[in-house]
Design brief:
Layout: E1 8-10, E2 13-19, H1 23-40, E3 45-49, E4 52-57, H2 67-82, E5 86-87
Antiparallel strand pairs: 1-2, 2-4, 2-5, 3-4
Helix pairs in contact: 1-2
């Protein structure tokens, strides 16, 4: 199973907050995440506030976390790195 080091567990959900360099980059990250989510047919909760993105993953049908959550988390981590966003210290 993927070790989602930038993600924190919150019950049956994993969460990560990232800060993009600017609003346009934050939107680009959301668009790239949407592409991966569609490819996996697994959709995260995304909340965007200016350039800060709050992401949450869980598998509702399974009642908790599955390998699919960690697979998408790894893809999101790569997207975040590609866009030079950083983890938010106060998650």
């Amino acid at each position: 199973m993927y070790e989602a080091s930038e993600w924190r567990r919150d019950g049956d959900t994993i969460r990560r907050t990232v800060v993009a360099p600017d609003f346009r980059t934050a939107i680009a990250i959301v668009n790239d995440v949407a592409e991966q989510a569609e490819a996996l047919n697994h959709h995260p909760d995304i909340d965007i506030r200016w350039r800060t993105l709050h992401l949450a993953l869980t598998t509702h049908d399974a009642g908790g976390l599955t390998d699919l959550d960690y697979k998408l988390a790894a893809r999101i981590d790569a997207i975040v790195a590609d866009h030079q966003a950083r983890s938010h210290a106060a998650e």
